[in-house]
Design brief:
Belongs to the metallo-dependent hydrolases superfamily. DHOase family. Class I DHOase subfamily. The protein is of the alpha/beta class and 442 residues long. It is built from 14 helices and 17 strands. Strands 1, 2, 3, 4, 5, 14, 15, 16 and 17 form a nine-stranded mixed sheet that branches. Bound molecules: zinc ion.
């Protein structure tokens, strides 16, 4: 079976080029202009559309093993496919947590049946309690590449230091949910208007940046690798940039919801917008968007966190933290980036591939593909002989609500949100799994 993606723009090695792409069985065979159409079985017309590698999410909550969940790995994997993802990193704050080899193996054996690749993280500390390190040697031997206590930050500086030493010794990544528990205690929203209006305690930006500062200090002199999860504070981004300039082995992700949704969304008390770290002020959002546009951030990661409605009910104080959003990640982030370029009327992407909007789209696609791949120590590129894991996206698709019918959980912050752009088709190893936004074969 030979398929030609004709007349589109291909994202190769961080750049756009006008070219056709020929796929044969599971592989990319050629990327070039004017490829011969006569000898192919199928032509996918890609005028006005972009062909890119499938996306990688560094931060998904797959909720397995879990208790009383509506969503499960199968439904979440389908939602991820619709979002254009081929690989997701599953967090380890499950019930019980993935803090030993047996649990990690058990989760992996289930994930092997899913249509997408799951990279399962393990916790950094036993029981995710922040006191004693897990058995890094056994877990790394079993195949674990990423360790994270996500859901909470590692408070004890000595434990964090030991974790970074283990990272250096075993060549693995420590991903940190940077949050000082004392500064965040009891908080549920950003400080300022949100906390004042709802009369609740806040999680200020400094609760994050103070831990980022500490971890960067700890990393100096240790050749370990630190990844900053869901960066939401201006000062965290500044510290991260400085650390990168100094040559530390550090990477960072930002979420679509922190880029698109300001803290004023919580004013009505809608618990769909309750998330940790909380939605921030517009000036912080602008700073984070700049961090995507200038290439500071390595990745846009979703922090996709399904909850059954029962856990999102009740007051803002009582409801659980977390939102879904893996199906809408690309359009949500693209919409946020568009607003920085186009202050008023939206228009279609022009033909000049060097224009600011194309550069912005390139930054976004890097943060969804090659950036997270590098964090995982991989490289991906749509070149001949590469596995044909690719998406066809329409960046100029009219603003619309993305139907999130694959979610069983109702905690999508994008319900009712008009988003620009869409993921049309997804192919994994040459097999079409999403057609016009619908899962077809997974
Ligand atoms: Zn987290």
């Amino acid at each position: 079976m030979r398929t030609l993606f004709a007349g589109g723009v291909v994202f190769v090695g961080g750049r756009f080029c006008r070219a056709d792409l020929l796929m044969e069985e599971t592989r990319v065979m050629a990327v070039d202009r004017g490829l011969d159409r006569s000898d192919v079985d199928r032509v996918v017309v890609c005028e006005g559309r972009v062909i890119a590698p499938t996306f990688i999410d560094l931060h998904t909550h797959l909720r397995y093993p879990g208790v009383d969940e509506d969503d499960d790995p199968t439904s979440i994997a389908r939602a991820a496919l619709v979002g254009g993802y081929g690989v997701i990193v599953a967090m380890a704050n499950t019930q019980p947590p993935i803090d030993r080899v047996e649990r990690w193996r058990e989760a992996n054996s289930l994930f092997a049946t899913l249509p997408i690749e799951v990279v399962q993280a393990a916790t950094v500390t036993l029981g995710r309690e922040g006191h004693r390190l897990v058995d890094f040697e056994r877990l790394v031997d079993a195949g674990v590449e990423i360790f994270s206590d996500d859901g909470s930050g590692i408070q004890d500086s000595s434990v964090m230091r030991q974790a970074l030493v283990a990272s250096a010794e075993f060549g693995v990544l420590i991903a940190q949910h940077s949050e000082d528990a004392a500064l965040a205690a009891g908080g549920v929203v950003n400080d300022g208007v949100a906390a004042d209006a709802l009369g609740v305690a806040s999680i200020p930006e400094v609760a994050e940046s103070v831990m980022v500062a500490r971890d960067i200090e700890l990393l100096k002199g240790i050749p370990g690798r630190l990844h900053l999860q869901h960066v939401s504070a201006r000062e965290s981004l500044n510290l991260f940039r400085q650390a990168k300039r100094e040559g530390l082995r550090i990477s960072a992700e930002v979420t679509p919801h922190h880029l698109l949704l300001p803290d004023t969304r919580v004013l009505g008390g809608d618990t769909r917008f309750k998330v940790n770290p909380p939605l921030r002020s517009v000036p912080t959002q602008m700073a984070l968007l700049q961090g995507v546009l200038d290439g500071s951030f390595d990745a846009v990661a979703t922090d996709h966190a399904p909850h059954p409605d029962s856990r999102k009910r009740g007051s803002y104080q009582e409801a659980a933290f977390g939102m879904v959003g893996i199906s809408e990640a690309m359009p949500a982030t693209w919409t946020a980036l568009w607003r920085t370029i186009e202050s008023g009327e939206r228009r279609k992407l022009g033909s000049d591939l060097a224009s600011p909007e194309w550069i912005a789209l390139g930054r976004l696609l890097s943060c969804l593909t090659s950036g997270p791949a590098e964090v995982l120590g991989r490289s991906i590129r749509l070149a001949p002989q590469a596995r044909a894991d690719l998406v066809v996206i329409d960046p100029s698709a009219e603003p619309r609500e993305i139907p999130s019918r694959w979610y069983r959980s109702g905690n999508s912050p994008y319900r009712g949100e008009m988003l620009i752009g869409r993921v049309d088709d997804v192919f994994l190893a040459g097999r079409q799994v999403v057609d016009e936004g619908e899962v077809v074969d997974a």
